[in-house]
Amino acid sequence: MVNALDPQNIKNFSEASVSVEIETEDMTLNIGPQHPSTHGVLRLVAKVDGEKVHDVKPVLGYMHRGYEKLAEVRTYPQITTLVNRIDWVAGFSNEIPFIAGAERLMEIEVPDRAKYIRLILTEMARISSHFVFNGAYALEVGALTPIFYAMEDRERVLDLIESVTGGRFHPNFNRIGGVKPAAGAGPTTKKNIQDLPAGFYRDTKIAMQKVIEAADQFQNLIGGNEVFKKRTKDVGVLTPEIAEAFGVSGPILRASGVKSDLRTQTDYLPYDQFEYEIPVGENGDCYDRWDVRVKEMVESAKIVLQAIDSMPSGPLQAKVPKVIKVPKGRTYVRAENPKGEMGYYIISDGGLGPYRLKVRTASFSNISILPNLLEGALLPDLIAIMGSLDFVLGDVDR
Amino acid sequence: MEDFFNNIKESFTNAVLEFETINIKVDSTQWIETHEQLRDEFNLKFFSWLSAVDWDNDVSVGEAPKESVTPCFELITCLSDVENTNLITVSTTIDKSEPQIDSLVGTYEGANWHEREAYEMFGISFANHPNLEKLYLPDGYEGNPMLKSFELISREVKPWPGDVDVEGMPEDSESGEQVDG
Amino acid sequence: MKNFRPKVPGFLIGIKIVIVNMLKTLSPFHSKPNVNYPFEKEKLAPRARGVIALDQEACTSCMLCARQCPDWCIYIEGHKELQPPSKPGGRQRSRAVLDRFDIDYALCMYCGICVEVCPFDALFWSPEYEYSEFNMGDMLHDKERLDDWLQTVPDPEGLES
Questions:
Q1: Beta strands per DSSP E along chain B
Q2: pLDDT tens per residue across span A35-48
Q3: Contact A330 B137 (CB under 8 A)
Q4: Which of C21, C30, C47 to probe the A interface (max A CBs under 10 A)?
Q5: At the topology level of CATH, where does B2-151 sit?
Q6: The whole model's pTM is what?
Q7: How many structural domains is chain C composed of?
Q8: Looking at beta carbons, which residues of chain B come within 8 Å of C80?
Q9: For all residues of chain A together, what is the average pLDDT?
Q10: Which residue of chain C has the CA closest to A153?
Q11: In-domain check, residue C99
């Protein structure tokens, strides 16, 4: 008879293995529309087996505002006021390609000073968007301090944008032919020119120096931290082939090793007058996507400092008729938004507003890779991967 | 841009370059072959977007086209090349009473969500699409919002505050013109 | 990752940054970036878009602002009045008088198109922002209230050379 309490026998029992197939069903986990990590109202229906995620289905449309339909009943200046609400973190960079498209159809030449002011404000919007990313991504991975550092430095940049345009996120400063020339159309308000206010150069230099120091601080505080590295290196690797087939653009594509930056192709802004580098990553994991954005912040600050030193003088807006009718034609204009490639396809019929406006947003294509990337990932990795894609729901749902 | 355009014009004779955008018009039966040729021969592997335009003569939003058009749907895709940044748009027209075309998901995987959006906004159905269902609109929504015959309710219900005429405009350039919006 | 052996562990450098920032915040010479809101108010830029002020005398009810507003939130009604002639024996002039000029701030997008198209200098921007209400109907500011905001409109400031 076997003595069950004999230690020798217990050791033998514990080495016996039994293979039994246990039938389990995947649990459906609803990472619902209200969630602090989904950057808005994004809903993911995930089939989860323990902690491994099998199949993710994004459900969109909680913020669909119908931009393309709204644009059919409005005139060009009115659409400019709507369009900077698409990607509300970097408001100024959404207006620029639309106005550039209308100017291309009308064949208007924009004065140099207006181009430089547009470039400075676009780069400031890019810095502001990347600050939000830095603060919020560290918060999702688990660090509570960096978001306060990021918001404090971002306030300086937003105050600068407010002192020039009047609004922090929705500047509404672009007009067809240049930037906003005067505060009104009457006899005294016509003389109130909306050029750069006094003290702008001094405040901008201080703000950009602080941005460069803050990026260095982030590299040491977050990037050197072993916990952050363990959480983000080799997580969510994206190959360039999948990225190109799905239309992924911007810092995500650059982090996968493809050196592509649309700023070299935009001819309506004078990027060829400045020297800047294009940071490219190696592996395409979450750490590279974070790293590329921090380095881009530094490059944008350097561009702004160079632009201030070489600002030309001149009028702020070209001569345009009082009632603007854009001639017939169709064109596609694209720009390098902080989140990726943003483009507007305008079909104009000679009226006061476009016949059809198609808005191509960056985040819509960027999150279409989520079902591919999240295959077999653990649940905490899902949060880290989603945060590194840096999308905003206004961009996804338009 | 010029060299690329000349290259394209050798294979597709009806390519047009206007306002810095190249457009190729193809027949709807050659939709997939054209895209495969552009992807393999001309290295345009980046799928930017796909959308549709509703050409119609009586519209209930906005203004009608100035010259009359034959009512149809026009499908447009935009492809590009990440290394050399060449850009091209391809367009085709399909019939409005039975909108049907082959799906591009086999050629470019990214066309999945764009075709779902065109399906729910215009009512165009794509053959061989893996999951053709609604993307943005809630379940049970009736109608296709982007059609020109679909009204914007908020503009119909509220009377336009600019209608009350007290005095004529100060300068007489384009005065008396009813601006919609 | 396996061959990664730094001289100083990364998180110690991070803690050094946190401690340096904490000492900076606690030092008495630090200019605080926070504004203790209900007790101190922040001074906004003069061009900040807070509220729209109306100068009633200058308005001639030309309806340009109501027509160009993207949201249809300006409501204007008026009538014409005859005025005594400026010179004796001259023609009687008619002037438009406002009965109603309402801006509905519940709908307003703060875009500024109305201020920009007004040809008679009747609308101005002002950086006031404290006018929230508990009742949605109170967000419709009528003529008198819009006139009160006129005192808060700042003078145009100097420009960079």
A1: 16-18, 21-25, 46-55, 72-80, 87-94, 100-102, 125-127
A2: 887 788 888 888 88
A3: no
A4: C47
A5: Beta Polymerase; domain 2 (3.30.460)
A6: 0.88
A7: 1
A8: 166-167
A9: 86
A10: C33
A11: yes
